[in-house]
Design brief:
Layout: H1 13-26, E1 31-36, H2 41-56, E2 61-63, E3 92-96, E4 104-105, E5 114-119, E6 130-133, H3 140-148, H4 157-170, H5 181-192, H6 197-203, H7 209-219, E7 230-235, H8 237-243, H9 252-257, E8 265-271, E9 276-282, H10 288-293, E10 298-299, E11 303-308, H11 312-329
Parallel strand pairs: 1-2, 1-3, 3-5, 5-6, 7-8
Antiparallel strand pairs: 1-4, 8-9, 9-11, 10-11
Amino acid sequence: MTHKVDNTGEANYTEKLKKIAQTLLDWQGPIVIISHLDPDGDALGSCLAFKRALDSLGKTTIFAMGVPGYLKFLLKDNEHVSSLESLPEGAMLAVLDVDLGRRTVGAPLEGAAFTLNIDHHGSNPRIGDLVCVEPGKAATAQIVKDLIELMPVSWTADIATPCLTGILTDTGNFKYTNTNASVLKDAAELIEHGVDYGFLTDRLQWREPSYFQMLGKVMATVEFPLDGLVATAYVTPEMEAEVGSSDDDSNDYVGLIRYAEGTKVAIFFKSREDHTKISVRTRDGVSAQAICHALGGGGHVAAAGAKLDLLLEDAKKAVLEETKKELSRHKLL
């Protein structure tokens, strides 16, 4: 099917959400909810809050996502499927926290009767029958919160908890520069809806014991290329096999090396048999988004990622070349 492209900009945010809310209320068919590869807390949190809100209205929803281990505690039994081979007849496809088609996972894009695109990444090309992209929001979960409040949904802790999870993870527990008064206000309101904040923030930090064994191996790979402006680290299948590590894209490792003094860019390489995934974090205006977009990925200025069809050593060269260009653009090299 041919999807519409929304070129109206962000000025009518509330009006767009009102239109989406009414469309959801009127929709009689199933609603399939998906997000991006290697889902993080915002991908899962925004989708799960969205699903539970619609379920409370009597809608038929199917949530398709491969959930990382550290986030599974948020799910109830039989609340999601890992993937769908095809869409049900007459289904709306709701794509959250990623642009339609770039790195979506969980269900095919073809066959949807209607497509909904909700995201906070500025690089989203705004493809879909109804689109709401708001880069000014720190997390897609913030947009979902605003949308839920336009529908006759009674907030519960079950809806508010994943919604707050999305905000927490995309702001680094309110440490990142995207934290502002609006973020803190939304978080406070969600806590008032019954979130056990102490439990949630503690539980989100839990990791399998193998994580801590892997941490030592990953830290041993840290290097500081490009005059020490960049911190890099990597993990390989061989390293994971040694400690029995699970496939857990929690972004903890890049989150650690980003605090190396004097660095502007942190890059974590996750090597696989036929490709390499990267997570990039930046500061002081240096754009992780620009680096990853040049490599076929996307994200935000301060945090982005990509999947490269290259083995580790070639991926390192390609990523560092784009990083060098970005640092040079800022006259740092």
